[in-house]
Give the backbone structure.
Amino acid sequence: MELHITGTNTELTPRAHSYIKQKLTKLSKHLPDIMSIKAEIVEEPTKSKQQRYVLKATVTSGIGKAQFHADERAEDLFKATDRAAAVLTRQLEKHKGKIYRSGRRNPFARGKFLQPKAETPGKVVKTKHFVIEPMLLEEAITHMESLGHDFFLFFDANASEVRLLYRRNDGDYGLIEPEFKS
């Protein structure tokens, strides 16, 4: 999740920055598939001290690329952050409810979001040994069909080389003729 916090007409203290970050990152527990959060803090010179700070926040969700917005005013930055977080929480919960009602079997509504799997390289779990007999292409097709396999490795009697025969999705056959590097 990307978090962008910017300030206009005001300088963000480290304390204010960490407070905003803490409040806005908690939103991911309501809808875990949040892709990015952008927060802009503006200090406006107003007559009313109660509306001096404005926090504009935008949350982008990965589910249907939905966006949620909150614009809140308060006398200090921390109250504006609390109000904006409350508004966004309501919006995210409402959106999650809509997802759940639209399809009761939708795993996103129950919090079962797709977690990115760690890419682990595959490993060899079984090794087979077999004798390759020289045969013609037609014999290899017949042999592959009798075994019920989708591919068959054989030694081509005409070319005196190893070939790989495979069944294509359209029902025809493909032939791989490897070339060895010298």
Summary: Strands lie at 2-8, 34-43, 53-61, 67-74, 134-135, 151-156, 161-167, 173-176. The chain has three helices and eight strands.
